[in-house]
Amino acid sequence: MRSVVAFAAVLVLFASLAGAEPAFLSKQYTRCTSCHISPAGGGLLSSYGRSLSSRELSTTGNRGTVDPDNPAPEPEAQFLWGALGDKLGPLQLGAELRPSRVRSSFAGFTDSRNILMNADIIAAVQKNGWTFYGEAGRELKPEPTFGSYEHWAAYESTSGLGFRAGRFFPAYGVHLADHTSYNRVGLGFDKYDQVYGFEVSRNTSRSLVQVMVSPGLAESIIDDERARSFNASGRWQLDLGPAMTVVGSGLFRAESDIAPKEGSAGLAFGFAPTSKLTIWSQGDVRGDDLNGASFVFVNETAFEAVRGLWLKVSPQIRTESGPQPQIVRLALSATLLPRTHVNVNTTYYRDKPSGSTPIHTVLLQLHLYL
Amino acid sequence: MQCPLTIGGSFEARTKLLSGSVMPGPTPADPWAGQFIVDLTALDTGISLRNQHLRDNYLEVGKGPDFARAVLSDVRLSGIAGAEPVGKGTFTARLRLHGAERAVTGQAELRRSGSGIRVRASFPVVLEEFGIAKPRYLGVGVKEQVTVQVTFEASSGENAR
Fold this sequence. Notes:
Radius of gyration of chain B: 16 Å
Order of helices and strands of chain B: EEEEHHEEEEEEE
Distance between the termini of chain B: 17 Å
Shape of chain A: globular
Largest sheet of chain B: 7 strands, antiparallel
Number of strands of chain B: 11
Strand order of the largest sheet of chain B: 3-4-5-6-7-8-11
Number of strands of chain A: 17
Helix content of chain B: under 10%
Largest sheet of chain A: 16 strands, antiparallel, barrel
Strand content of chain B: over 45%
Helix content of chain A: under 10%
Distance between the termini of chain A: 42 Å
Oligomer: heterodimer
Structural class of chain A: mainly beta
Mean pLDDT of chain A: 90
Shape of chain B: elongated
Structural class of chain B: mainly beta
Strand order of the largest sheet of chain A: 1-2-3-5-6-7-8-9-10-11-12-13-14-15-16-17
């Protein structure tokens, strides 16, 4: 029975994938804000991130000389490949679409479906240290609805002190692109696990500290008062070098009317031995008053085979926790980037719950990040 | 060269094109004769866009020999005896970079390595002092001070490696 539950969970889990690319550690980018507006990674790419997408990821991206006297991003790297010219002014805009096909099989049962995982518009304005960020689009919960799961305002001073307030994703560990990774969904950092909260941060050349407090998960504040409870998290990233970093994280969620008190703490380590290889590992202990402690370990090794083709291997394990059996995953993926902001991703997952036959899932998705 | 970023984190620009020869002065107080030369045209940051910006837009290596290479001369060691040049100490030197010449001060560590000496040295460089524009591109930049780190093995009577 537990395996059937796990199979059903897998199908729901693949509802969407969020974008973030910690594999760029191999290019000597240790911080999420190198490419993304959000300090927790994922979501809207910054102009610089878009430029890297064009020049360093896409197989057909521009490799020519940049005009040093023209500070504007090249059209290929802009929203809709520059179709709007400079009409947007200081507004940074992105549209994200992910038509996908997912096929899962388990013990003779097979399920295939086409899913439009994401259909979002994301916008941000940045000026004088301030950032205003908002996303709106189609959410799968599991029925499609329209909503906004991220909207916040933030400020960072020139000395690196900052704050953020609104609905956002708490900073924790390494933010892998695949939200079904056990260190995300297994620790309570799924696609819609944003909080309404307040975050303070300290950003220096060598470290980044983020501490967040919140009256509860955003969904609980909007829809379900019984699930509302105090949340707090902390994340400390220390860069040991341009391509090596260690991250310590902690999360606490107080007891609500329907869920016990829970928390997790973990350590992540990322390093890039070459400019084409990044290895991230994260180990966490998670526990709650009802089911006791469990352990989660995730590794993601990413290799840039040729320009525009990334291969990833990700072994993962989550030990038994209450009614959930121990489960072991092997994920293999290939991502082809034929043009700027166009990704074609194929991922195979083998999830093996303890005492049960494995669940095989293949996910094929076209990611248009316009 | 370690370059801290304005958004946090840093990147390294590397090259192996270091050459030169030096000789201790008559007394420890005298500067070492000779110079070290680094070819800047092959500085590599790991990605092409950053390489292009670094070499062409900011170091402007195409402007001529004074821009295409960095030269360290008039090295004066402090805390490391000339007769037995091993140990840790500080140094001062003249750095010619981007068409300008300024004094620099740094740390050095010299160790015996086979028949030669392994040298590790580092010193800060303030970009503005050498007339190098603030590196900025689409909201991401390099802070005003970078750190130059040098590691080489010096052999008696041979070119430095």
